Amino acid sequence: MPTDLLREVWGFDAFRPGQQEIVEAVAAGRDVLAIMPTGGGKSLCFQLPALMRDGVTLVISPLIALMRDQVGALKASGVAAGALTSGHTEAESDEVFSALRDGSLKLLYMAPERLAAGGTLPLLRRAGVSAIAVDEAHCVSAWGHDFRPDYLRIGELRRALGVPLAAFTATADAETRGEIIARLFDGAVPQVFLHGFDRPNIHLAFAAKDGPRAQILDFAAARAGQSGIVYCATRARTETLAAALNAAGQPAISYHGGMEAEARREAEGRFQREDGLIVAATVAFGMGIDKPDIRWVAHADLPKSIESYYQEIGRAGRDGAPAETLTLFGTDDIRLRRSQIDEGLADDSRKSADHGRLNALLGLADAPGCRRQVLLRYFGEDTAPCGNCDHCDRPPELWDATEAVRKALSAMLRSGEWFGAGHVIDILTGSATEKVKARGHDQLPTFGVGRDLSKGEWQGVIRQMLGRDLCRPDPERHGALRITPDAHPVLRGETSVSLKRDALAKRAPRPEPRAMVAEEDAGLLSALKARRRALAEAQRVPAYVVFPD
Ligand code: ADP
Ligand code: MG
Ligand code: ZN
């Protein structure tokens, strides 16, 4: 299954727009020309099918640096890949030859120049090459700036080997496309994939969680009689939400991977057949669903990544008629997703990529401008403001939150980076709870400096700080918030931060805030670090020891 490989080998939770169709066509052995923007994810479209097919996939790539990157990444994921180029050492080449001989190699990268060498064709025949992938296929076009004469040999090679060929490029103009088809496919007509990624009929909207169950019930009630999906992070929540919807007079069923296969098939069947049924589901729901008139998709919890988000909302409005979406997210979601990544089995480079993908989703959730612009730009496509998202409907209110962010960072630092958002907010708002008093945090210089904002507003500030990766929960400290290097320039007063005002944040009475000495806090940061390091080294004090001011 392509989605299993996607998860197990690449660690991705969903295909990007367009990828799945291309992967399926290439895996089925069809000739393919795929046009996708830069950064859209073309490599995966030939790498994944290579693992699904017998034999070796030959990848023609114009640059040694590109080949090195891709082969390195594949090997790191446990895929047998190698390159034969002038830039690789003899030892590296020997390794590739031996993997070719014992039939273990799945992807063989080569520069087009190599095709001119006499021994290459017999070598590829012996190796059992069963498919060719051409990356940067516009290099075959004499019109572009990247013309590489040796790309012209590929057509010949394809004929000689008699295997399917898949060509990939980001250059979409008709002339180049025509040339690629003529020169690489030799008169055969490939299946062409040239889709914009946009689904303009889908309305995009996000909201901070503020009583999520009521928010979802309201959203569904406003669309009564229409088929919709509510995605939930847990199995339990699919059940409680379905029950709540039914109690509110909205016919709903739940769906998750823990249900018997029989029950799942029945739920899928009912959803396909019945009008106006709601499914409260985990992400297990949707793969096999082919219902064109799903009118809305809501996320009761933050999805895993931008890719998952787009795949899940993309199930709405396949008939092209207007469809609505609403994605809820809160501080807890961000904490949960961050710890899931940190506690996962993946290695560090994959973890940091996962954090990056989560950051991209959070950037979308708290974006100040048009959602669709942010979303499509992530997939490499540029567009004008869409006129069909919550922010195009009504631009959000922004405010200069630099001081608020500095106060929050200081409160985290001064309490030793050992506490979660609730406690940090208690310190900021001057709430002398038992826990605050027990730790002496009512004596901190940051105690009460944030009385100008309500607790709800502080939740919004900290959520957006998490979203911008200014602070992160540390799984080794039960999710306590710790500041990241990105926060240092803010603490030092070198960058300002503008945040969205949560429309939902509840207002509180506003006593005068206490002043705070900011420079002192910036210094405190490095002083604390140095002290912790020095003490740890000198006395072997465990890293979790908290130092008072
Ligand atoms: P292109 O060749 O189209 O410019 P790449 O193949 O280099 O794009 O992919 C761009 C980035 O997108 C890479 O970092 C890749 O790991 C990432 N990527 C590709 N597909 C997915 C996916 N389904 N989910 C998450 N990330 C993806
Ligand atoms: Mg590429
Ligand atoms: Zn918009």
From TrEMBL:
Protein name in UniProt: DNA helicase RecQ
All copies of domain Rhodanese, residue ranges = 214-270
Q: Which reaction does it catalyse?
A: Couples ATP hydrolysis with the unwinding of duplex DNA by translocating in the 3'-5' direction
Locate the Helicase ATP-binding domain: which residues? 23-190
State the Gene Ontology BP annotations: DNA recombination; DNA repair; DNA replication; SOS response
GO CC entries: bacterial nucleoid; cytoplasm; replisome
Enzyme Commission (EC) number = 5.6.2.4
Gene coding for it: recQ
Q: Which organism is it from?
A: Paracoccus suum
Q: Which residues of the full protein are shown?
A: 1 to 549 of 676
Q: Where are the transmembrane segments?
A: none
Per UniProt, residues of the Helicase C-terminal domain are: 215-362
DNA-binding recorded as keyword: yes
Which EC class is this protein assigned?
isomerase
